[in-house]
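Practice set, problem 2.
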Amino acid sequence: MKFGGSFAEYIESKSYDRSFAFYHTDAALYPAIALLAYCSTRDLDRSNGRAAQAGSITSGNAYTAKFKKLAGITPVNKGSAAVQAITGFIPGLGVDASQGHAANTYVDIGGLPMVVEGTVGSHAFIDEVHVGDWLVARTREAVLSTLANNARVPYTNPGVAILTNAIDGVMRRAVAAGVVAGDIGDDEDSFLPAYSIEVDRVENIPASQRRNRIAPDIRVDFRYAGAFHYATASILMRF
């Protein structure tokens, strides 16, 4: 035990993805519930695909839990060393397991009350887990709907295309939600989402797999948009 066997240390030791610790000197304020309430308002299904194609960063409800102001919660009165021990955050480096619990707390920085650092026990960020679960759920729904609402999806390359098109629809929704990273095209008028979908051709699938009607694995690769949590600037004054 690094710090005495606290709840935060326990969920960190278990590398829990769906549990987080929130330190506050007044537990009666329920700051963890306040943070979850904020996260629950970030409905990734509500988005604007056209705005996303134009490169808008507000086309959907992508978010980070860090920096958020929580209604009815007062900041803790703790110095930077204590906050570092709580969160494990090292400026310029990120969350370091050897420096703290990877827990969250609520502080005042520059007169702005805010959550830091928005992490779960595994050191992943809350939004990453949210997005991953959302993508898995929507992909399962899309594939099941495709299989259930057709007389059949044939075990052919065009049939595979039907399945991949269903998944591509999910990824387009993810682009609109703002969770898929992208770049501006060479003409500066087009937005290029950073995701790809690959699948083997049917003729390359073992006959035993085809006989059992198990579709080839559809592989989706994308770059998560994430968020900036720390920034520096170098300013040179000349005379």
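Problem 2, part (b): a different protein.
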Amino acid sequence: MKKLLLLLIVLCTFGCKKFVVSFEQPTDRKLDNLKLEVFLDKKKVKDINLKAADGMPGYETSGFSISDEGKHQLQVKVKDTTFTYDIKYPEEKFILITAHLKQNGKVHIGILKKQYKFRFSK
């Protein structure tokens, strides 16, 4: 029984490498119901529909598995524009994606990458 428990702990520690991506829900009403397509290494992994929030923005969080070398390409497609970011694990474990509306009417996707968790105030 002890061996099984030890094996389970080892597998969880080394086999569950993930990086976490949080998508910020905007406060700008013009970005309400905007669809984001998320690709990891050119494979579609998620669709995000942004919902405008009153006051404080909300966050939708997803975890993605890491390959052996820990390098990935994260792409976010919005309307007709694709934003591409390189992810290096373990230096960049926690990622925050935000959508902004520029003055010319185009949507810009921003990214913050950290090794430690983001602290969100509620």
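Answer key, part (b): The two ends are 43 Å apart (CA to CA). The mean pLDDT is 83.
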